[in-house]
Structures are given as C-alpha cells and as structure tokens.
Amino acid sequence: MLHAFRPALYATLLASITAAGLAAQADPDRPVAGGGTLPPGWHARTDGNRPLTNVKFDSMSVGHHVTLGPAAIFWRDADNATGSYTVEAKFWQFPSDTHRDHREGYGLFIGGSALAAAGQRYTYFLIRDDAMFLVKRRVGDSTWAVTSSWTANDAILSRAASADTTKPLENTLTIRVTPTDATFLVNGKMVYKAKASDVDASGIVGFRVNHNLNVHLGQLQITKS
Question: CA 172: distance to chain centroid?
C-alpha cells in the first residue's frame, strides 16, 4: 500500500540531510603532517577505514600525543581486560580551532573485539570541551548511544570554565567494570552507571579520539579487581 506524500515530512527530512552535509563540509578531516606510523605494539583503526596518513600518534615520556585527521581508536593486543577491572587514563585536550558548532569527543573504550575486522565491536566513553559526556557502542559500522545523548556534567573541566583557555584541558576518565555493572567516572566522580549486559565489558581496552582533535593521552592503567 502506498502512503500519501506528505510535503512537511519531506521538507523536514531534506533539512536534516542538508544540515548534516553542511556540517561535514564545514569541518572536514584535516591533513596532518608526519602521520601514518605507529609506535611498536600499537594498532589504530579510523572510522570508515580512512588511511592513517592523517593520523599522528607519537610516544612521549608520559603517554602519547595524538593529532588527527579522521576519528580513530588506538590499542595494544596485550591490554585485554575481563571480569572485574578498572581502566583509567588522564587526558589533556589542547586548544583547537575545530568548528564550535561541531565539537568532538575523546576518551576510553572497553570490550573491544575483532577491532581490525568488519565485525569490530566495543563500547566507548567520551567527553567534550563543553563539559558533555557520552557512552556509546559500536558493532561493525553501526553505533548507538547507551546514554540518551551527549549529557552535561559539572565533573568535566570545560573550556569555558578554564581559567586559562590557552592551556590544555586536563580530565581523568575511569571505567570500573564488575560482573553486574559498568561505572563511568570523570575526575573521580560518577557520571553514569550501566548494567554490564548493556555494554561490551570484556575484551581489549584502549583510546578513542574523534576527528580534528589534538589530545595528549596519559598512560593507560588497567587494574584487575
């Protein structure tokens, strides 16, 4: 049965598609000099399997520094966590001229499996410089939010609240996993708790950084309970 054509609905859909297209055009993946290589033992995968040419991942005396191009995840095969555990890292987000209407997030992922394959799977926990956080899952090329959407929380140090907006923002992200639940914390404060069955709790843990960001990643600390 054919449904009647509804001009208002068509106009709404067209506006949504056009807005998404304009946002992408306004904030395309940037070229990054010196990209394309990774430190020994590290792997990376970009969204859409874009080339690593514009992904720069440098080892430093304390952690790693990431300058992107395309959004990507970074992991080591040895960083595999199951059962009850805590994963934590400190992040420093450097000032960027990323489009202010198109803020991007960065943080941790857990429960990674088949990360280099078509059926990649993981749950990620991101924050943004406007004091928002998000928990999301990925299976293959599909993603869906565990939290309802990006959510504000005053535990997150924001660019607006920073005394010196020229300095990097410093936030510590923690995920605590038990057989029953997964708790997500920023700077020691719980911002969200989920049932363990609602996230990918067992597998590789690592970092996720969205496109066009300049972020220093502290050491990834995994503690088994």
Answer: 14
pLDDT at 99 over 50: no
- What are the start-end ranges of the E strands in the chain? 42-46, 55-59, 64-68, 72-81, 85-93, 106-113, 121-127, 132-139, 142-145, 151-152, 169-177, 181-186, 189-195, 203-209, 214-217, 221-224
21, part of any domain: no
- By the 8 A CB rule, do 55 and 46 touch? yes
Average pLDDT over residues 77-87: 97
Distance, CA of 216 to chain centre: 13
Contact between residue 221 and residue 65 where contact means Cβ atoms under 8 Å apart: no
Q: What is the CATH number of the domain that holds 169?
A: 2.60.120.560
In the structure encoding, which two tokens stand for residue 70, read together? 């395309």
Q: Is the distance from CB of 109 to CB of 122 less than 8 angstroms? A: yes
Residues spanned by the domain of 64:
30-224
Number of domains observed in the structure of the chain: 1
Q: pLDDT of 56-71, one tens digit each?
A: 999 988 899 999 999 9
| pLDDT-based confidence at residue 24 (cuts at 50, 70, 90) | very low
CB 131 within 8 A of CB 156: yes
Q: How far apart are CA 106 and CA 90, in angstroms?
A: 11
Residue 2, pLDDT score: 44
Report the C-alpha dihedral over residues 167, 97, 133, 174, rounded to 10 degrees: -40
Task: State residue 173's pLDDT score.
Answer: 98
